[in-house]
Write a structure and sequence with these properties.
The complex is a heterotrimer of chains A (287), B (251) and C (330).
Chain A lengths: L3 H30 L6 H19 L3 H24 L7 H23 L15 E4 L2 E4 H23 L1 H11 L1 H6 L4 H26 L6 H16 L4 H21 L6 H13 L9
Antiparallel strand pairs in A: 1-2
Chain B lengths: L5 E10 L2 E11 L4 E5 L6 H9 L6 E6 L2 E2 L5 H6 L2 E4 L11 H12 L14 H13 L15 H13 L5 E5 L7 H12 L6 E5 L3 H7 L2 E6 L2 E6 L1 H6 L1 H8 L6
Parallel strand pairs in B: 3-8, 3-9, 6-7, 7-8
Antiparallel strand pairs in B: 1-2, 1-4, 4-5, 9-10
Helix pairs in contact in B: 3-4, 3-5
Chain C lengths: L10 H8 L4 H9 L2 H5 L4 H23 L8 H17 L4 H23 L4 H21 L1 H4 L24 H22 L2 H11 L1 H6 L4 H27 L9 H14 L6 H15 L5 H18 L3 H15 L1
Helix pairs in contact in C: 4-9, 4-12, 4-13, 4-14, 5-6, 5-12, 6-12, 9-12, 10-12, 13-14, 13-16
Classes of the chains: A mainly alpha (287), B alpha/beta (251), C mainly alpha (330).
Chain lengths: 287, 251, 330
């Protein structure tokens, strides 16, 4: 019989996996191009609402919507990157913050207009419901699924980054942009592809989030805060950092709310501030 | 024998396995007109970054006069009299030349902490700034925003900003870089006209200029000092010819 | 406003001319008196606008002049508000002392935080300001025994101003008080901007690397301006507590931080009047459109932000001065 703390730990890890999916794209693109994209969770929302639309109006099964959520978010992000983001790569932090916050605001309004302001209901397949009873703990099936997805994606990402030529180009560009382009790497194209992939992952996260935390138009900002904290703590440009930070934040948040509800949101802010003051580039950051 | 204006001992720096500075020992006497030359990637700008404190060495020491400045922050070194210019213009784009140099003069005089008096009340500082600008042939353009100045003038402003700190040692990183040949003469005349008390070390690629203005040449290759001597010695040095000057060279 | 310089103009008089009171400036301040006579129904709103303008001015000092992007500036606004509110509740209700207390308490908090802020730049700095703002907001929420939590601070009791002016329902006293405080602190900020210190701030904003290369103690400068900015924001917060006789949690919230940032950017950062103009435009618009659904508001604000960044990067005042420069050149 395991004490309840392990249950809390497991829930935290599952939540952390979700945060990882939502954050890894932003971490890598920030490390790559130093472009502050605060519309990142708006792209996640695109994935979530795409999944809702397919399930509600077209009767698609849940699993089928996941790849579409990924592609929809990636596609939307490509359009924005081409049209609005590219002219701003050399502009100040402030300009990038304002542009992307503006886009996020518009997305919130659009989501409210098309889907209404309520939380979106979702129908999971039957075998996704309920929980396993393992060693005295209730392990929710869906949370287990999240952990599995997170693990698979992590393996794929690390494999891509370490073993493929494209991954090597990304790593080079994160390390030293000027030198990378001097070596013939098309940094802007590398960034565009990475950006699309990262936004796609966020879209996947958005779809997966519906069951765990709910999807409403405010998602773009509510989870942006968490994502920013994960990226700041984990470090810019680091997949491993994002994973570690996401799990850390996920566990801290769940544990904090379970054991010290009065302190609630405090804990993760304190974690972030402490880490940043000790390591401004994040735990495993490269800049 | 008084201490040299600037000296380094065993100065070394590496990034992982990449060695960018190897046991560098040099001495810059008061009033020096030294040139630092070498192929691209030899570590010349790196050496300046080490001397000014932007990079921290792995080993070695730096002395300004008799004082060990190895552990001092960049701002502190400037206040002790070590100034530099940058190879790529590092200017206050939105300020005009007068404001920029006045800013430096006010900082030096400790006036920048005052937030209750108008800048215009500090007549001496402003006049000093204006005099520096006039000496550097920027007097007429001093009200124009820096970003609107022609490139050659901007390079002169780089030097003006450094001079306004009243340095004892001035490190110039390719002062005429990117300036069309008609205007680069201006820049080096200004440099030649600088005070005889000032110790000068300048990085330069144009060997005409080097042989004309330098009293001593330091050649760097691969992060280390390869050769050092008077212009005649360097011109005759067989190794230098091979490594750097190539077959079409000076005599 | 920039002054055309003749060749040969003495440098000292050129710099002095830069800082002289212009006709437009005088007209602007005279115009602030108009609501008393022509818009008496809007005096409460005018009071809110004056207070928010002061808050925006405080942000402009660090954003437009020192280049610090802060996503948590409402932390100081709220601190000043709660400080003044609690002061009136537990000590005494005289407004001017309450105002000073609010400003000083906030200045001290700002000074403490400035040691952290001055050490960082770019993303880490933005996240630190955000985190500190959120932390203080969460703290105020948790300490509901002190702050009243989501019900707001109760028991704020402000005595009549100078012993004579009662807080009338129309808002004559509120607007008069807010306007005078705004003007006095504006004069102070104006002095700071035109001082050698102000020049140093602009240097930090323009090129931090160059500032180090000229021996400037940039961190000390940043700490100073951050403290001054906190004091002004705290004063604004104190004003809102005193004129509305309550303090709500949203005075510390992220939304307020985001809004004031939008106002400064809308008006044009680094031009002294940008925050004032931005606050005026933003709050008037919000009042006019207060009937519409929140999502429409978000839509238009979002679009406005995108438009400002793409087409009007120096805000309204920047656009105006570019327009005037074109027009003069004709």
């Amino acid at each position: 019989m395991l004490p309840p703390v392990f249950g809390v730990l497991f829930d935290g890890i599952a939540y952390g996996m979700l945060l990882f999916l939502l954050s890894v794209g932003l971490s890598v693109t920030l490390g790559l191009m130093n472009f502050v994209n605060l519309a990142h969770c708006a792209f996640a929302m695109v994935g979530g609402y795409a999944a809702v639309l397919l399930m509600r109006d077209f009767g698609w099964p849940f699993f089928g919507t996941l790849p579409i959520a990924f592609c929809a978010a990636a596609a939307v992000s490509i359009v924005f990157e081409r049209v609005l983001y590219r002219p701003l790569y050399r502009r100040s932090d402030l300009d990038q913050v304002l542009l992307t916050v503006g886009i996020a605001f518009v997305s919130v309004a659009a989501a409210a207009y098309f889907f209404g302001t309520q939380l979106q209901p979702i129908e999971l397949p039957n075998y996704m419901h309920g929980s396993y009873h393992v060693m005295g703990l209730d392990i929710a099936v869906y949370r287990l699924f999240l952990v599995a997805v997170g693990a698979v994606i992590t393996i794929l990402l690390v494999g891509a980054i370490e073993l493929t030529r494209f991954g090597a180009q990304v790593r080079a560009a994160v390390d030293n942009q000027r030198m990378a382009s001097g070596l013939g790497i098309n940094v802007e194209r590398t960034f565009a592809i990475t950006f699309a992939l990262g936004s796609g992952l966020a879209g996947l996260g958005g779809a997966l989030a519906i069951e765990i935390v709910g999807l409403d138009p405010n998602f773009a900002f509510t989870y942006l805060i968490y994502v920013l904290i994960v990226v700041a703590v984990g470090g810019l440009g680091s997949i491993a950092g994002s994973l570690a930070a996401a799990v850390l934040i996920g566990v801290s948040d769940i544990a904090g709310k379970y054991y010290m509800p009065e302190l609630g949101a405090f804990l993760i802010y304190l974690v972030m501030l402490s880490v940043l003051m000790w390591r401004p580039a994040g735990l495993l950051g490269r800049r | 024998m008084s201490a040299p204006a600037l000296s380094t001992r065993q100065l070394s720096k590496s990034f992982g396995s990449l060695v960018v500075a190897r046991d560098i020992a040099l001495e810059l006497p008061v009033g020096a007109r030294y040139a630092l030359v070498g192929p691209n990637g030899a570590g010349k700008t790196t050496l300046i970054n080490l001397m000014t404190g932007i990079l921290t060495p792995n080993a070695g020491q730096i002395f300004l006069g008799e004082n060990d400045i190895t552990d001092l922050a960049p701002e502190q070194r400037v206040r002790r009299g070590l100034a530099r210019t940058f190879q790529i213009n590092t200017l206050f784009a939105g300020l005009n030349a007068l404001e920029a140099v006045t800013l430096v003069v006010c900082e030096r005089r400790g006036l920048s902490r005052e937030f209750w008096r108008n800048v215009a009340a500090h007549k001496e500082a402003i006049d000093e700034a204006h005099d520096i600008l006039v000496k550097l042939r920027l007097g007429e353009a001093c009200y124009q925003a820096t970003r609107e100045l022609p490139y050659g003038r901007q390079r002169l402003l780089e030097i003006a900003l450094a001079l306004a700190t009243r340095p004892k040692v001035l490190l110039l990183d390719e002062p005429a870089a990117g300036v069309p040949p008609e205007e680069s003469g201006d820049i080096f005349e200004v440099v030649a006209g600088l005070s005889a008390d000032l110790a000068l070390l300048f990085i330069e690629h144009d060997m005409h200029v080097v042989f004309r203005f330098a009293t001593q040449i330091i050649v760097m290759v691969g992060g280390a000092v390869f050769a050092e001597g008077s212009p005649a010695e360097i011109a005759a040095h067989p190794g230098v010819r091979e490594v750097y000057l190539g077959t079409r060279q000076h005599a | 406003m920039p002054v055309m310089a003749q060749i040969g103009a003495a440098p000292v008089s050129y710099l002095k001319a830069q800082t002289r009171w212009g006709a437009i400036e005088t007209l602007f301040w005279l115009a602030t008196l108009l609501p008393f006579y022509f818009l008496p129904d809007y005096l409460q709103l005018a009071s809110q606008i004056a207070i928010t303008a002061l808050f925006a001015l405080s942000l402009d000092l660090i954003l437009g002049y020192a280049g610090i992007v802060s996503l948590g500036h409402a932390a100081f606004f709220g601190t000043g508000a709660y400080a003044a509110g609690l002061f009136s509740k537990f000590v005494w209700g005289e407004p001017l002392t309450g105002l000073i207390v609010g400003a000083i308490v906030t200045a001290l908090v700002g000074y403490a935080i400035s040691f952290i802020i001055a050490r960082f730049r770019h993303f880490a700095l933005i996240m630190l300001t955000l985190g500190i703002g959120l932390l203080l907001g969460a703290a105020a929420n948790s300490a509901s025994w002190l702050t009243g939590g989501s019900d707001g601070l109760q028991g704020v009791n402000i005595w009549p101003l100078l012993g004579r002016f009662k807080w009338d329902l129309y808002g004559y006293t509120a607007y008069g008080y807010s306007l005078v405080v705004l003007f006095v602190l504006f004069l102070f900020a104006r002095r700071v901007i035109h001082s050698p210190f102000g020049l140093a701030l602009r240097g930090i904003r323009e090129n931090a690397l160059r500032m180090a290369a000229i021996g400037a103690p940039s961190r000390a400068h940043i700490r100073t301006v951050y403290t001054i900015s906190a004091a002004l924001a705290g004063a604004a917060g104190a004003l809102i507590a005193q004129t509305t006789q309550t303090v709500a949690l949203d005075s510390l919230g992220f939304e307020r931080s985001a809004e004031v940032l939008i106002m400064v950017v809308l008006g044009g950062p680094g031009r002294l009047y940008g925050g004032l103009v931005g606050a005026l435009v933003f709050m008037t618009a919000r009042d006019q459109f207060s009937g519409i659904e929140p999502q429409y508001w978000y839509f238009w604000i979002g679009l406005l932000l995108v438009a400002v960044v793409m087409f009007l990067p120096n805000g309204i005042l920047g656009g105006l001065s570019r327009f005037l420069a074109h027009w003069r050149a004709k």
